[in-house]
């Protein structure tokens, strides 16, 4: 079964291309660490920007920054 996954890290054991459980393994792993899957950041990153901190707090800050940048 094919799964959509925007993550480019196909070497990760949790990437859907490496098992048949979709995004579940990745999301479970990240939530245990109180982090957000890095692919969620793709919605709010500036071109060329990378993710170093995947914490929930860092994601919330980046969402608010993206809203400010967009004038929302």
Structure notes:
By secondary structure, the chain is an all-alpha fold. It has one domain (16-69). It is 32% helix and 0% strand. The chain has helices at 24-32, 56-69. The longest helix is centred in the last third of the chain and has 14 residues, at 56-69. The radius of gyration is 13 Å and the shape is elongated. The termini are far apart.
Notable characteristics:
single chain; mainly alpha; 2 helices
As a percent range, the share of strand residues is: under 5%
What is the β-strand count?
Answer: 0
> Mean pLDDT across all residues, rounded?
87
Shape annotation: elongated
Helical fraction: 25-40%
Low-confidence segments, given as residue ranges, are none
Distance between the termini: 39 Å
Report the major sheet: none
Helix-strand pattern? HH
Number of domains: 1
SS content category: mainly alpha
List the helices and strands and how they pair.
Blueprint lengths: L23 H9 L23 H14 L3
Compose a concise summary of this entry:
The chain has helices at 24-32, 56-69. The chain has 72 residues and is mostly helical.
């Amino acid at each position: 079964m094919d799964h959509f996954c925007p993550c480019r890290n196909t070497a990760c054991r949790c990437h859907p291309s490496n098992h048949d459980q979709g995004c579940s393994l990745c999301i479970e792993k990240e939530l245990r660490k109180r982090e957000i899957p890095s692919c969620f950041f793709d919605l709010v990153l500036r071109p060329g920007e990378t993710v170093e901190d995947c914490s929930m707090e860092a994601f919330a800050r980046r969402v608010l920054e993206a809203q400010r940048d967009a004038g929302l």
